[in-house]
Amino acid sequence: MAYTQADRCDVDEAQETCAIRYLVTSEPAETGLVDATSVRADAERRERQALGLWRQGLPIKDTLAERYLSGRLLTYPLPDTLRFHPPCWHPSAKRFPAMLARVSITQAS
Asked: N or C: which end of the chain has fewer CB within 10 A?
């Protein structure tokens, strides 16, 4: 999920939006078999899209995203896992600046 300037909201709104869009449903769960091949293909497609966005992004230093975080008083050294994407696509079919965060899942050994 990319955050753009068009999506201005506070943390509570963001958490609520994520819960509504991705986690919470009032509909009963579907009971049926899911085609594992299509699930895998969808996950691979999403991963390719995310990696493509990441590669198109720029280091966050001296960008609008860095200024945004600085304005929120987050002035400590920013990690390499944050990047800036100037013309990121938005569902409104427009493009807006976006801050990207790379999230990796590692398994405990």
From this structure: C
